[in-house]
Specification:
An eight-stranded mixed β-sheet has the order 1-2-4-3-5-6-7-8, sandwiched between helices. The chain has 307 residues and is an alpha/beta fold. The protein has a single domain, classed as Rossmann fold. 52% of the residues are buried. Helix 5 links the parallel strand 5 and strand 6.
Length: 307
C-alpha cells in the first residue's frame, strides 16, 4: 500500500489545482492537456485501483464511460459515479482507486461517465452527458431502484443536478444519491467561503471563482443545474451529503441540505470535524476517511434491494 501523508497530499493537490486553473485560462507553462495528464497520474499514483475489480470502457449512447466491476458484484446493482475536478479535469482512469473501493464494498458495478470538460465544453455539457449515461443504463434493463448516484466535489453537485435534469426529462429516479464535498453554489456566498478560506487545505474561494468563470461562460452562477442550492429538488430520492468541517464549501453544503429538506427530500447531512475536501480519498490512511466511506456505502446499501 502506498503510504500517504495527509498534509503533503493536500499541498500537492492544491498546487496541481492552481496549475489547472492557470492552464484553463491560457496561462502557465503547461498546456491544459499536460495538466490533465498530470492530474490523472497524481490520482493513479496516490490511489491505485484495488485488487479484485476489473475496468472496461463502454460507450453510453455517445458518452464515453468506464465500468468498474468487482468479482462478487450483485447482479443488477449499479453505482453511477461522477468524478470531481471542477468540471475542468478528472476522468474515470484517475478515479479507479476511490470508485473501485466503493464498488467493491457495495458489491455493485460502477458506471463512471467521462463527461465533457470545460473550457472545450461549457455548462451544461456535464449535466447533459450524465443524464445521457443514466438513460443509457436504464435502457440496458437496469431497474432504477437498483441504482445509486454518487460523486465528489463538482461531481457531488452533479449527483444532485443530474437527477433534477433527469426528473424534468421524465426519467425515473434512482434509489438514492450521495454528494461528497459538493461544489453546490457557484456564487460562493456561503459564510465559510470566507471564514475557512486559508484553513481549507486544498480549495480556496479565489480558485473556485476562477474555475466557475471557465465552466459557466455566460451562464449565470445561480443557474439551478450549475448551483443546485437554487434548484427545485422536489421528487428526488434520499440524499446523503458528506462535508468536511474545514471546507470552504461547508456552508453551501448545509444550504443544499436545507434546500432538499424544504422540498421534502429525505436528507442526511454528515459533517466531519477538521476534515478537508474529499477526505474519503485517504481511506486506509485516516480513520475519519474510513468512516466516511463506510457510511456512504451503508447509506447506499440501505436504499438498495438486499443482496
Amino acid at each position: 500500500m502506498v503510504q500517504i501523508d495527509a498534509p503533503a497530499f493536500y499541498q500537492e493537490w492544491s498546487d496541481l489545482s492552481g496549475g489547472v486553473f492557470d492552464a484553463a485560462a491560457g496561462k502557465g507553462a503547461r498546456t491544459l492537456e499536460e495538466v490533465r495528464l498530470a492530474y490523472r497520474a497524481f490520482f493513479q499514483d496516490s490511489f491505485p485501483a484495488p485488487d479484485g475489480v476489473t475496468f472496461d470502457s463502454v460507450d453510453a449512447d455517445g458518452v464515453a464511460a468506464e465500468y468498474a466491476t468487482p468479482a462478487d458484484a450483485v447482479t443488477g446493482r449499479h453505482l453511477v459515479y461522477l468524478h470531481g475536478g471542477a468540471y475542468i479535469v478528472g476522468d474515470p482512469q484517475g478515479y479507479r482507486g476511490l470508485v473501485g473501493d466503493l464498488a467493491r464494498r457495495l458489491r455493485a458495478r460502477a458506471l463512471v461517465p467521462d463527461y465533457r470538460l470545460a473550457p472545450e465544453a461549457t455548462f451544461p455539457a456535464a449535466v447533459d452527458d450524465a443524464v445521457t449515461a443514466y438513460r443509457w443504463l436504464l435502457e440496458q434493463g437496469v431497474a432504477p431502484g437498483n441504482v445509486v448516484f454518487a460523486g465528489d466535489s463538482a461531481g457531488g453537485a452533479l449527483a444532485v443536478s443530474t437527477l433534477v435534469a433527469a426528473r424534468d426529462r421524465g426519467l425515473p429516479m434512482p434509489a438514492a444519491s450521495i454528494a461528497i464535498s459538493p461544489w453546490a453554489n457557484l456564487e460562493h456566498t456561503g459564510a465559510t467561503m470566507f471564514t475557512l478560506d486559508g484553513v481549507d487545505p486544498s480549495v480556496s474561494r479565489e480558485g473556485l471563482c476562477r474555475a466557475a468563470d471557465v465552466v459557466l461562460g455566460s451562464t449565470p452562477r445561480n443557474h439551478p443545474l450549475a448551483s443546485p442550492v437554487f434548484a427545485d429538488t422536489r421528487g428526488l430520492p434520499p440524499v446523503l451529503i458528506q462535508i468536511g468541517g474545514h471546507e470552504v464549501m461547508l456552508s453551501d453544503a448545509v444550504r443544499l441540505a436545507a434546500r432538499l429538506a424544504e422540498d421534502a427530500v429525505p436528507t442526511r447531512l454528515d459533517v466531519a470535524p477538521g476534515m478537508g475536501h474529499v477526505w474519503h480519498l485517504l481511506a486506509d490512511h485516516l480513520p475519519a476517511a474510513d468512516k466516511a466511506v463506510a457510511d456512504a456505502v451503508a447509506f447506499a446499501a440501505e436504499h438498495l434491494p438486499a443482496a
